[in-house]
Amino acid sequence: MGSKNKLKRFKENETFSNLFQPSRDILLADQFEMKGRWNKDYFKNNNPIVLELGCGKGEYTLALSERYPDKNFIGIDIKGARIWRGAKTALQEQRNNVAFIRMQIELIENAFASCEVSEIWITFPDPQIKYKRTKHRLTNPEFLKRYKHILKANGLLHLKTDSEFLHGYTIGLLQGLGHEILMAHHDIYVNAEAPKEVVEVQTFYEKQFLQQGKAITYLKFRLK
């Protein structure tokens, strides 16, 4: 994508009522006005809040919001040109149960209050295979602590990835920490038990991975 196109999208992002772009300083100072107020001030209901982390163009956020109108969905990504697509589509289709935040996922506790979230989807994150990149892995122990803080008791997490490495790493970590694995599939398209929303919603990247013959893995778990 050309830089002119990106700049145009960044400018348009500023006009979207469903897209929040808090600065890092605001988040670190714990001054983000939506923290703890998503149900009351934005969605104006008490429905469960579901996050998609690293949402890209928001394919899961949009698809799940259509499938579950009685839940609220928030897509989170740092890439403004990508998140533009999801936010624009949600506005065009008048999805009142959808919002997006442009921010770094490591600051998630600064965007949501304790027990404010019911469910988290992590869809095709960078597996960060190199050892020195472990701290950026979205299922490492530090990130799991952050998720636990904002999740309600018995809140659900989903990991969908083409990385057998990340799938295996996360299973080992969850078992070692005593968390509850509810479902684990090494290839969702050859397993009839995979939930419908896991096989029927395909992201932009997933379609590319499938064309390359990669297996798509899935984990559903709870943090104890």
Report on the architecture of this protein.
The chain has 224 residues and is of the alpha/beta class. It has one domain (3-222): 3-Layer(aba) Sandwich (Rossmann fold). The protein contains 9 helices and 8 strands. The protein has helices at residues 3-13, 24-28, 38-43, 59-67, 80-92, 141-150, 164-177, 196-200, 204-211; strands at 19-20, 49-53, 72-77, 98-102, 117-123, 151-161, 180-185, 217-222. Strands 1-4-3-2-5-6-8-7 form an 8-stranded mixed β-sheet, with helices on both faces. The longest helix has 14 residues, at 164-177. It is globular. The relative contact order is 0.14. The model has no long low-confidence stretch (mean pLDDT 94).
Topology-level CATH name:
Rossmann fold
Beta strand %: 15-25%
Shape: globular
Mean pLDDT: 94
**Rg value:** 17 Å
Q: Quickly count the helices.
A: 9
Distance between the termini: 43 Å
What is this structure's SSE topology?
Layout: H1 3-13, E1 19-20, H2 24-28, H3 38-43, E2 49-53, H4 59-67, E3 72-77, H5 80-92, E4 98-102, E5 117-123, H6 141-150, E6 151-161, H7 164-177, E7 180-185, H8 196-200, H9 204-211, E8 217-222
Parallel strand pairs: 1-4, 2-3, 2-5, 3-4, 5-6
Antiparallel strand pairs: 6-8, 7-8
What attributes characterize this protein structure?
alpha/beta; 9 helices; eight-stranded mixed β-sheet
Task: Give a short synopsis of this structure.
By secondary structure, the protein is of the alpha/beta class.
